[in-house]
Amino acid sequence: MNGPDLIIENISHYIQLDEREKELFLSLLIPASISRKQIILQEGDICRYSTFVYEGCLRGYTYDKNGLEHVLNFAPKNWWIADMYSWISQKPGILNIEALADSKVLKLSKVNQDILYKEVPKFERFFRIIIEKSLVASQERVLNNLSLTAEERYTQFCAKYPSLIEHVPLKQVASYIGVTPEFFSKMRNGLLKKK
Length: 195
Known about the structure:
This protein is α+β, with helices and mostly antiparallel strands.
């Protein structure tokens, strides 16, 4: 499925568009190809685009004061990604967004999103739902990091991102679930022996 078809299918789970609305929406998107390891947003930059992935995978990450990398989210095919704080506030953000593989995306600028809100008001509903889901996922992640074991967090990762487990470097999976690569390797080997 090509990018325009996939993004329209993604949106149709929440709102229905007529042909004129689809054409307007698609005309406001900017297609882009991103090379593996290319960074499309750096910490300290203002997030100017919300990005929909239709091929490949992106990840959002940050560094703590000790220089340790922390993966906050992944965006495989059919997912959106942005630095939500920066996107909404239009202030410098804390996320870096990088391609884990050669990727193809559709980018929606903040200006074009505002045009959509004015011309097709039902997009306010769509993006409200997307932002609500992002907020719920962030809160759930914080609570899981506080209350679940590393094994339970890994199991949830596998359920949330089933297509990624074989394609994402294990050190990034370890970072996402909040453990060192060494601990992760031992834990994963123990889980595999149990099966």
